Amino acid sequence: MRGMFSHPAVLFLWIQSASGWMHPKCQIYDSGEDLGDFATWTCTYLRHHEEHYTAACEEVTAIEEDLLGLPPNINNLCITMTHGENRSMSLGFFSQFQDLVYLYIDGCFAQILPTGNSHLPNLEHMYLIGKWVMGSGCCDCHIGPHTFRDLVKLSHLYIQGYRLRAMAPDVFHGIPQLQIFSIGEPCEEDLSEILCRIMNIKSLIKIRVNAPEIQSLNQSNCSNNNQNVTSVFNNLTRVDLLFDEITHIEEGAMAWLQNLTILNADFSQEVLLRLPLSGIKQIQYFSCFGSNDIDIESICNVVFLLSIKQIYLNIANTSSLSMSSVELCIGLEYMHLSGPGAIYPTPHLKWNFISSLKKP
Question: At 192, phi and psi to the nearest 5?
Answer without folding.
Answer: -60, -35
